[in-house]
Amino acid sequence: MRTVLVDSGGANLGSVRYALERLGVSPEVSGDAAVIQAADRVILPGVGAAGPGMARLRELGLVEVLRGLRQPLLGICLGMQLLFEGSDEGDETCLGLLPGRVRRMVGGPGLRVPHMGWNRLEPRRDSPLLRGIPAGAQAYFVHGYAAAVDDHCLARSVHGQPLAALVQRGNVAGAQFHPERSGAVGARLLANFLETGVA
């Protein structure tokens, strides 16, 4: 099976690659449209802001490529946020593969934004992506923007407000948390994606 990591310029590219290698997978890292289109599994990592993230995809000519994929696609952290229609971070238009906008998280007394650290995953519906991940499992988050909990949300977390932690629509899925930094839970999510896609 051919797995491709989109060369999105994110700082987590190397750590996602190492996480996949620990699962026995040697992913290709590529910004080439033909390589991405020929993959069996595509992963879009990302760290940073929506504007530079989308600018990088436009520079590589990958916006329409990603929009047109029919094979399983997994966005991670910023990569998940770029799957939505838009982001309040710079009022950016994103890929539009998932409905809705990513909004800035609201802080408060004792509530830190950006949200950094471990948080519980609360499953909302069954999915092969969640196989072997128990309710209440902990995952590692680093983000200041979040998507709302809607019908496409497989698992949520709460940080002052409910937020989408894992989403899926058709062949497209996204994890707001960092599976590559989430120990056995993250490894299980990646293994599930590689084995079953998002069906």
Please tell me about this protein's structure.
By secondary structure, the protein is α/β, with parallel strands linked by helices. 24% of the residues lie in helices and 32% in strands. It is built from six helices and 14 strands. The strands form three sheets. It has an eight-stranded mixed sheet with strand order 2-1-3-4-14-13-12-9. Strands 6-5-7-11 form a four-stranded mixed sheet, with helices on one face. The radius of gyration is 15 Å and the shape is globular.
The pLDDT mean sits at: 95
Order of helices and strands: EHEHEHHEHEEEEEEEEEEH
| Rg over C-alpha atoms, rounded to the nearest angstrom | 15 Å
Oligomer: single chain
Number of strands: 14
Query: Helicity, in percent?
Result: 10-25%
Strand order of the largest sheet: 2-1-3-4-14-13-12-9
Strand content: 25-35%
End-to-end Cα distance: 16 Å
Low-confidence stretches: none
| SS summary, helix count | 6
- Overall 3D shape: globular
Largest sheet: 8 strands, mixed
- Summing up helix and strand content along with how strands pair, one would put the structural category as alpha/beta
Brief descriptors of the model:
eight-stranded mixed β-sheet, 199 residues, alpha/beta, four-stranded mixed β-sheet, 24% helix
Secondary structure elements and pairings:
Blueprint: E1 3-6, H1 13-22, E2 28-30, H2 33-37, E3 41-44, H3 50-59, H4 63-67, E4 73-76, H5 78-81, E5 84-87, E6 92-93, E7 98-104, E8 115-120, E9 122-123, E10 138-143, E11 145-147, E12 153-158, E13 162-169, E14 172-175, H6 183-196
Gist?
The protein is an alpha/beta fold and 199 residues long. It has helices at residues 13-22, 33-37, 50-59, 63-67, 78-81, 183-196, and strands at residues 3-6, 28-30, 41-44, 73-76, 84-87, 92-93, 98-104, 115-120, 122-123, 138-143, 145-147, 153-158, 162-169, 172-175.
